[in-house]
Amino acid sequence: MPEIPELEAIRGFFNEHLSGSVIATVETRIPPVFRTPAKELRDTLPGDTFGEIGRHGKFLLFGLTSGRTLAINPMLTGRFQYIPAKTRIAAKACLVMGLVGTDDQLRYVDDRLMGKVYLVPGEQLALIPNWESNGPDLLDPALDEEAWVARIKKYRGAIKNVIVKAEFVQGIGNAYSDEILWEARINPYTTRTELTESDLRSLYRAAKTVMAWATPLAAERMIKDGSLNYEERRDFVRVHRRGGEPCPRCGAAISEITANQRITSFCRQCQPGGPSGAVPPR
Ligand SMILES: [Zn+2]
Predict the structure, then answer these.
(1) Which residues surround ligand 1, an ion (CB under 5 A)?
(2) Whole-structure pTM value
(3) Buried b vs exposed e over 222-251: b needs ≥16 C-beta within 10 Å?
């Protein structure tokens, strides 16, 4: 699942390569992902021009000079491609857009078809379900350390479950939550109420540090020779899905626990604590 580092890498790529491009053709190949009628995309997008590409939580926001926004949440398996038209079209390519003056196409591919594609009029992103009830984006400048601490105090339960909640803050998913907690040396099973104010502040700084560290690394792996055509590869992460490997900080074996189809990886030595009942012995 793409998280902030991957989506920021893609956003940067599209701002460089897609802004200013006029849409020539629109093909909607697989219906379930379209939350705005596919016909509307086919009928009204050609002739429109891409403006600035933004991001909000897990949504990539393709601004259009008509004032509308093409908003895409790739969910678990959605991927963006920007590749020559002659490249074979993937079986699960949902949206294929041709552009004026270039042979490259913008494609959205989604193996499990769980992603969501909306075309919304200007300033009406709030029409997207949960847009307003969800919390701020982690990289929103208004979310400073004080705002983070004030927000997080409203939540209880295991800290990992808190930081991945979109109602709290958007953009942190299962993989980078493990990296953030490792960075902050906090056990994922410690409850929010057990953490001190100073822990909550370190957690904020760790979240920012991890995103700044991971974004260029994600970009290196996703962008090759001016093309965006990737399989998600996070070979740089320090703990997530590295169960049994040595912790890069202390050398102890990384623990891995799977619950509710979600993998949590952490270092018991660097991230002590957690209620004894919730963490099975090694
Ligand atoms: Zn360690």
Answers:
(1) 247, 249-250, 252, 267, 269-270
(2) 0.92
(3) bbeeebbbbeeebeebbbbebbeeebeeee
